Amino acid sequence: MNRLLEDLVKVMTLERLEMNLFRGESRDIGSPQVFGGQVLGQALMAATATVENRIVHSLHAYFLRRGDFNSPIVYEVDRARDGNHFSTRRIVAIQHGEQIFNMSASFQTAENGLEHQTEMPKVPPPDKLPDLESLSRDLPPGVPSNVRRMLQQKRPFEFRPVDPANFLRGGKSPPRKSIWLKAVAALPDDEALHRCLLAYVSDFNLLDTALMPHGISLTAANLVIASIDHAMWFHRSVRVDDWLLYAIDSPSASGARGFSRGSVFALDGRLVASTAQEGMLRVIS
User: Fold this and answer.
1) 118 within a domain of the structure (yes/no)
2) Catalytic entry in 95, 227, 260, 263
3) How does pLDDT run across 17-32, given as a tens digit for each residue?
């Protein structure tokens, strides 16, 4: 397995302290705090460890405080309910004695039922597009060093934007984008792991979509941006080591908050997951 991907799987593998208590490591990916997707994925791994023969179908999370990537995070799972077909869990992430995150997740026994889905957007295939890492090598001289470090950091996922135009230029455009993504190497045949890793990677590219109609660059010095919440629904089986299309739009921004939503499609057109996120978008005058 690729070293970066192997390290991510290690980060998602939690230490069990008690029946419902877990501890996870943190990683510095170039952001000023623990990446929200890491906490999402670890919290889901903790909840999954308390459920048998059921797979997660939805999660709803709130980011309360910045996480410190120099310290471990403790996850406490409340086994709220185990019904005939569904199990519900509540998860609290604790660091330095304070809650930094909480989440509810629902798990379901596999069932057959009605089926329909929206169509995947018609976009160029990933093998016709450049990867984000190569695009980030040509950053303009004025990009701050911390932003340059974050964008040029090697990652366990490969990203190929459908519109590879320079996203740092700050030009106004409709709040819509699509990006292909996949893990950089093969992973074990473990549906729970793939869903946890999809939760991890789903936190990339969502919130900054709300900046697109305003002509504000993600690197703007007067911009304060932070995730407030994150919701996710898993519709069908998924493999994150195969190409996935993440189609994102932002229907609204108001009250110093931006709202974005995403649809995740497999290469064969299946809708495998949906996401939604609201975040703080504060422009300091």
Assistant:
1) no
2) 227
3) 999 999 999 988 777 7
Residue 82 domain-assigned? yes
Range(s) of the domain holding residue 33:
3-109+124-283
145 carries an active-site annotation: no
- In contact, 200 and 273? CB cutoff 8 Å: no
95 located within any domain = yes
Which residue, chain included where needed, has tokens 């090598």?
A: 137
Q: pLDDT band for position 217 (50/70/90)?
A: confident
271: domain CATH number?
Answer: 2.40.160.210
Q: Is 162 domain-assigned?
A: yes
Residue 248 is predicted with a pLDDT of 97
Beta strands in the chain (DSSP E): 15-18, 21-24, 55-63, 73-82, 86-95, 98-108, 157-161, 176-183, 223-234, 244-254, 257-266, 271-283
Active site residue 106: no
